[in-house]
Every structure is written in structure tokens, then in C-alpha cells.
Amino acid sequence: MSEPPIPPARRGVLRSPVDQRDYDVVLFAPHSFALEINARQPRFATRYAVNLGAGDGVSCNDPVFPLFRDGFGGLAVEGGTDAALEANLPSPGIRKLLGTIITPANVAGLLGGGNCPQSPDFLKLDIDG
Questions:
Q1: Is residue 21 part of a domain?
Q2: Which of 25, 56, 88, 114 can pair with 75 through a Cys bridge, CB separation 3.0 to 4.6 Å?
Q3: 67: which residues sit within 8 A by CB, 6+ positions away?
């Protein structure tokens, strides 16, 4: 017996600004996949999310925020110094690093220092430069 498909976040119609045609679309919320994996395969679940380039933790429809709101632990790293990150993600189970520039040379250390499991449920990488 197969599992039912993961439900889309929303179905709708979008108009293309390029050709002015309507297209039927199915939009998925990225975090819904992590929640479904946790529900369907709990033995593989870590309930841990990584947000590299977290900003303030909620703006721009941050896909990690719903997971943190659902009780996931994790790591939120931001190169800037937006103090709103701490206020928006108050859980002590989420390690917050502000003023931390992410580079290829330091990313493994950041993940290890944040006690990131080898297979987190969700990873968002949104760094500039």
C-alpha cells in the first residue's frame, strides 16, 4: 500500500507577465516535506532545521520559520546583526549566530558547533556573495 501524496500548499492560476497567459500551478510549501517525512517516517526524523542566511528569521516567507514554530530545534546563522532574530526565534532549542559570515572554509565548523545532526530534516542556504 503506497502512501498518499504530499498535499500541495495551494493550487491556483498564475498569469505570466511574459506571454500574458494563465497557467495552472501547484505550489508546495518547502517545509511541508519535512513535516510529512517526520509524520510518515519518524525513525528518520531529527526535528532539526538549519537556516543559513536567516535574516530576522521570519521575513520573506522564510521556509524554516514554520518548522521552528512547530517545535523543531536547529541552527539559524546570519551575517548581519539584526537583533530581531533572537526575538523572532525565542526557543532555546534554536542556536542563533549573528554577525557570522558563512564561507566554504567555516560552514562545517558552524554546523558541528551547532550540534547539527548528520542528516537534518531541512536545510536552507541563502547567503549572499
A1: no
A2: 114
A3: 31, 34, 35, 49, 74, 121, 122
Q: How many domains does the chain have?
A: 1
Question: 118: which DSSP letter?
Answer: S
Give the other-Cβ count within 10 Å of 123's Cβ: 17
pLDDT (tens place) for every residue of the chain, 129 residues total:
455 555 556 778 888 888 999 998 877 777 887 888 788 888 889 999 999 999 999 988 899 999 999 999 999 999 999 889 999 999 999 999 999 999 999 999 999 987 899 999 999 999 876
Q: How far apart are CA 82 and CA 60, in angstroms?
A: 15
User: What is the identity of the amino acid at 87?
Assistant: A
Grid cell digits, residue 112: 558541528
Gap between the Cα atoms of 23 and 93, Å rounded: 41
pTM: 0.78
Round to whole Å and give the CA distance between 120 and 129: 25
Residue 56 lies in a domain: yes
